[in-house]
């Protein structure tokens, strides 16, 4: 087992240093040969020093005594340019604000950096804090400048799963929808409806129905990494 540093395409760069967070990967006779459906094998194999390692999808670090500590999931990483940002780096400082009950950091699609961090916050009952106050608090307490959120959005309630875990895909859809509407306004397109479809090969696909300006909006959205379809 090792913690590995990967690039934005999930290719091996180097082994993580002691206490440096990387992707946990395993290699050995206990590792299976792959899924029966080839589509499920995409992105799970890492070539390291002539050997094929399995990415567990977990983020973690190896301490000086050789113990591994899990810190999160790779699919939740915010990849801002060359910076891989663990959402916990943003969420944990925000949880120390006296008004914050829950915080969730996600990546907002960005034409230049790939993604930029945005934080969603649910306040404690009876507490008050403005987005500007929370943003300033985050910038003061998050040590890595690249992890400073571009925005903090205060919501009444964060979406959760049946077991009470914050459901970040719903927040990511909100960011994509906001971005699509902003690009539509700049392109002079009129959006009638935005929906999402999970595609086996393209992943989450944003489906935009427009009554005008569809081609201009389609061109504008090619700047972003998420899959989209424009229809009249």
Describe this structure in a few short sentences:
By secondary structure, the protein is α+β, with helices and mostly antiparallel strands.
Please give the CATH class of the largest domain: Alpha Beta
CATH architecture field of the largest domain: 2-Layer Sandwich
CATH homologous superfamily heading of the largest domain: ANL, C-terminal domain
Major sheet details: 6 strands, antiparallel
The fold-level CATH name of the largest domain is GMP Synthetase, Chain A, domain 3
Question: What's the domain count?
Answer: 3
Question: What's the total helix number?
Answer: 4
Report the end-to-end length measured between terminal Cα atoms: 51 Å
Structural class: alpha+beta
What integer is the average pLDDT? 91
Q: Give helix % range.
A: 10-25%
State the total count of DSSP E strands: 14
Query: What is the C-alpha radius of gyration, as a whole number of Å?
Result: 20 Å
Order of helices and strands: EEEEEEEEHEEHEHEEHE
């Amino acid at each position: 087992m090792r913690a590995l540093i990967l690039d934005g395409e999930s290719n091996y760069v180097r082994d993580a240093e002691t206490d440096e967070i990387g992707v946990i990967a395993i290699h050995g006779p206990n590792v299976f040969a792959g899924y029966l459906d080839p589509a499920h094998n995409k992105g799970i194999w890492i070539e390291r020093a002539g050997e094929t390692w399995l990415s567990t999808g977990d983020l973690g670090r190896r301490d000086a005594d050789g113990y591994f500590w899990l810190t999160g999931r790779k699919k939740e990483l915010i990849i801002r340019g060359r910076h891989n940002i663990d959402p916990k780096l943003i969420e944990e400082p925000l949880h120390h604000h006296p008004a914050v009950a829950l915080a969730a950091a996600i990546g907002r699609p960005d034409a230049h950096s790939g993604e930029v961090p945005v934080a969603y916050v649910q306040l404690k009952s009876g507490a008050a804090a403005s987005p500007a106050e929370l943003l300033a608090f985050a910038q003061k307490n998050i040590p890595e400048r690249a992890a400073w959120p571009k925005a903090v959005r205060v919501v009444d309630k964060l979406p959760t799963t049946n077991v009470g875990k914050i459901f970040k895909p719903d927040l990511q859809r909100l960011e994509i929808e906001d971005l699509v509407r902003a690009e539509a306004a700049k392109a002079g397109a009129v959006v009638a409806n935005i929906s999402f479809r999970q595609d086996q090969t393209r992943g989450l696909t944003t489906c935009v129905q427009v009554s005008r300006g569809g081609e201009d909006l389609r061109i504008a959205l090619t700047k972003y990494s998420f899959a989209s379809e424009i229809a009249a």
